Amino acid sequence: MKPMSKNRCVWVPEDDKLYQDYHDQEWGRPEHDDYKLFEMLILEGAQAGLSWITILRRRDNYREAFDFFDPTIIQYYDEDKIQSLLANDGIIRNERKIRSVVSNARAFLDIQKEFGSFDQYIWSFVGGKTTYNHRSSSKEVPSQTMESELMSKDLKKRGFNFVGPTICYSFMQATGMVNDHTKDCYLYREK
Residue 44 catalytic? Predict the structure, then answer.
């Protein structure tokens, strides 16, 4: 007898365990660790113009290539390190995206100094708590919101790149700032 499958958000392929695990264990769950937040912001930026699964399948390569997303190390990347990243076929070798990680690390550290933590700063865009949406289908999920537009504008003002409103909304969904599990998903919660 075939085991019953869980009813997940429609964007999760039934035959992709990596994607299912990401959906079930990470996406939409509140994240407050500064370094995980930094990682997700960088990975969402790397996704620009690509599908999320392309990045998800390379996430371990990204972690290794970018010193496990430690901004205190990344801020000092020099031209030799940039060139080695551009030659790394385990990541997306887009020069603008790779260079943006260095400037984003510096901006991230500045925010930590100013606000005490990146978590404190970034979660302020949703009032410090998860926004639970009640969408019946994925067609109702917007690509950006007023909050993601404000976040994008402020991040850019602070020196971040690859943080447009759509990327910011994907980041908000991924880190649980916004819970967009649809009503037919087993992880949907009314709150």
Answer: yes
Handedness of CA 11, 143, 60, 79 (dihedral sign): positive
- Of 11, 26, 35, 52, which is the active-site residue? 52
Active site residue: 27, 44, 147, 188, which one?
44
Structure tokens at 174: 């991924």
Taking the C-alpha atoms of residue 78 and residue 121, their distance in angstroms, rounded to an integer, is 28
What domains, with CATH codes, occur in the chain?
A: 24-179 (1.10.340.30)
Q: State the DSSP code for 21.
A: H
Give the pLDDT mean for 92-110: 98
State the average pLDDT over residues 25-40: 97
Q: Out of 22, 26, 132, 149, which one is annotated catalytic?
A: 22
pTM reported for the whole predicted model: 0.94
Give, in order, the Cα–Cα distances in Å from 184 to each of 64, 70, 76, 134. 36, 37, 46, 10
Cβ atoms of 152 and 103 within 8 Å: the answer is no
Q: Two tokens at 188? A: 């949907």
Tell me whether residue 31 is one of the annotated catalytic residues.
no
Counting beta carbons within 10 angstroms of the beta carbon of residue 154, is it exposed (0 to 12), middle (13 to 18) or buried (19 or more)? middle
Choose the weakest-confidence range: 35-39, 70-74, 185-189. Answer: 185-189
Is the pLDDT score of 52 beyond 90? yes
